[in-house]
Design goal:
- The protein is mostly helical.
- It has one domain.
- The chain is built from six helices and no strands.
- α3 packs across α4.
- The longest helix has 22 residues.
- The radius of gyration is 16 Å and the shape is flat.
C-alpha cells in the first residue's frame, strides 16, 4: 500500500488497466511473470510450516488478491489517509492476523 500511496498514477498503470485497449508487450509481461515465478518458488520453502492444501501458486495469488483489494479500496475511498488508517487501511493488522491464524500449523 505504501507504493500506491506514494505513486498513485504508477500504481494504476502497474496493477490496473486504466488505459482502454492497452495490452502490455510480451517483454513487459515476461518481467512481471518472472517476479511471480520467484514468489511461487519462495513460497515453496514456507509450505512445510503452513497448514494449507493450496498450491504455492494459489497461496501467492490469494495474497496478491487480498493486498491489491485492500489497496484498491483504500485508494478509491480514502487516498488522503496514511497507511494503516481509514476504513480499509486500518484492516491491515486484522488481515495479517487472519491469514496467520488460518495457515499456522497447530
Amino acid at each position: 500500500m505504501i507504493f500506491a500511496l506514494q505513486n498513485p498514477e504508477l500504481y494504476q498503470l502497474c496493477f490496473e488497466r486504466p488505459v482502454p485497449g492497452f495490452v502490455p508487450s510480451a517483454e513487459s509481461l515476461q518481467v512481471g511473470l518472472g517476479l511471480l515465478k520467484d514468489a511461487y518458488a519462495r513460497f515453496t520453502r514456507w509450505q512445510e510450516v503452513m497448514d494449507t492444501n493450496l498450491s504455492p501458486e494459489q497461496v501467492v495469488n490469494l495474497l496478491i488478491a487480498i493486498m491489491h483489494g485492500m489497496t484498491a479500496q483504500h485508494m478509491a475511498n480514502e487516498p488522503q489517509l496514511p497507511l494503516g488508517e481509514g476504513r480499509f487501511g486500518a484492516l491491515i493488522p486484522a488481515a495479517v492476523s487472519m491469514v496467520n491464524k488460518a495457515w499456522s500449523k497447530p
